[in-house]
Amino acid sequence: MSMTTAFSFSTVPSIVSEPGASLRLGQLVAERFPGIERVLIVTDPGFLRTGLVEPVRASLAGQGMQVSTYAEVVADPPEAVVQGAAGFARQQGAQLVIGLGGGSSMDVAKLVAVLAGSDQPLAEMYGIGKVSADPANKRLPLVQVPTTAGTGSEVTNIAIVTTGETTKMGVVAPQLYADLAVLDAGLTVGLPAIVTAATGIDAMVHAIEAYTSRHKKNPLSDMLARQALSLLSANLVKACENGHDLDARQAMLLGACLAGQAFSNAPVAAVHALAYPIGGIFHVAHGLSNSLVLPHVLRFNLPYATGLYAELAGIVVPHAAGSEEARAHALIVAMQQIATITGVETTLQQVGITEHDLDRLADDAMLQTRLLGNNPREITREDARAIYAAAL
Ligand SMILES: [Zn+2]
């Protein structure tokens, strides 16, 4: 890459990475948004049950804010949830939105912040850059607080909505960038090891795919992807072995956040394109879907991305030696070993997929043209089917 190659880069203006930071969220919000009186927390029922929402609420209330909570977000949120949350925000007169949860809660929070103060219908927002820039449609201030280390949704400008039985639509717009992201490992200590592993592998995929993204790879996304992989590869197994290792947990959150910043500018590719149908049709979690196809897509890409994979091997498997091809191959093996060590499923059959499903998966994957276009190697339908067959 020549340094005179033009590129652009956007991200959230403010990030606080600090164990315990969510316990002083009220102060962090009051400092940045003086005069805010009514805030809405967007979360999911599972996280609500952990009891970790209460101290966050108390911190906001301690600064004189009225706090309402919308806790009905579900995985792969359907339009009805987004509309329900936006209606609740209007009814409560919310002046600021806080996404507190995994990718789904943060995605819903992004859309609530846009919809609550706008008369533009959600259906008109799908696509890239379709959110109204009319100053009359003002987005509410938005704060994102992730409770998993994976999606990086706290620093991306995309929200995914389930619009049909298995169909999903994305809203991609600069208005979806939060004003503030708060990374607090204290919120992630209760995550089961298997969830920690799958979401952590997803974050590593974000970094790998950003680093090899065909069109928008740039010096900033490269730097972020490398640092993300360094943090994630050094801490993923540690965080799985001891969920209360706060240092490892904080490093994972930061790694996932940096990977999110990278792929928000240098988009993900075929691993995600082939993972989406697995999630859509078989309701397999996003992180696991990616992990299942990862080594097979990397192996397919290898001849077209040898140099870049070898560079990343220098971070993930520093002891890897030999030719560029040997080191690139070591990266793939290392990613497979992480799944094996942490007990993540490694075959499609383990999640209920059979030979008969491969054609449908391949057909659906080919619809992900936006993602496939970023892949270092062109993928035909036959290639996609062969990759699924290898992953079976
Ligand atoms: Zn992902």
> What is the strand arrangement across the widest sheet?
1-9-6-4-2-3
End-to-end CA span: 36 Å
Q: Which structural class do you get from the secondary structure elements?
A: alpha/beta
How is the main sheet built?
6 strands, parallel
The gross shape turns out to be: globular
Question: What is the gyration radius calculated from CA atoms?
Answer: 20 Å
Tally of helical segments: 14
Helix content: 40-55%
Catalogue the unreliable spans.
none
Compute the average pLDDT: 96
Number of strands: 9
Which series of helices and strands comes N to C?
Answer: EHEHHEHEHEEEEEHHHHHHHHH
Bound molecules: zinc ion
Please indicate the percent range of residues in DSSP E strands (runs of 2 or more). 5-15%
What do these coordinates show?
It is a single chain. This protein is of the alpha/beta class and 392 residues long. It is built from 14 helices and nine strands. The strands form two sheets. Strands 1-9-6-4-2-3 form a six-stranded parallel beta sheet, sandwiched between helices. A three-stranded mixed beta sheet has the order 5-8-7. Helix 6 runs parallel beside helix 8, helix 10 crosses helix 11 (324-342) and helix 10 (286-316) packs across helix 14. The longest helix is centred in the C-terminal third of the chain and has 31 residues, at 286-316. 53% of the residues are buried. The mean pLDDT is 96. Zinc ion is lined by residues 202, 205-206, 272, 286, 290.
